[in-house]
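Hi R.,

Here's the chain you asked about this morning:
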Amino acid sequence: MNRQDPRALVDHFAEDCEFVDLSDGSSIRGRAAFLADLLDLFERVPDFHVVESRLAVEGGTVAAEIRLAGTHVNEWRGHPPTGAEFDWQTCSFYDLSADGEHLGRERMYYDAGRLDRQLAGAGA
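And here is the predicted structure, written out as tokens:
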């Protein structure tokens, strides 16, 4: 993520991976669709990066608290660009795929209202 290289990031995911955004109810299936979504995100927030993270691993599941940040330079989530930086606190659970080498599913949780207030320029 911090290399701003979506292609390298999706290589960690299985071809039939699933990304579930439990805060807005959306779901993406397949590596190609996940890549398209990430490319779109980096177009809207070119400096998107991880500020800090904490991981816990249990068997084939990884839990991650991740603080993301970037500068809102293009329309995103229905908000016109403000040029302001945002701070996005998330929690994700990753399940390994059957091959044990790739991520099969990510379920992401976050406070969508807090993120949208920041993107609208209203602060946290």
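One quick note: The first helix runs from residue 6 to 10.

Cheers,
M.
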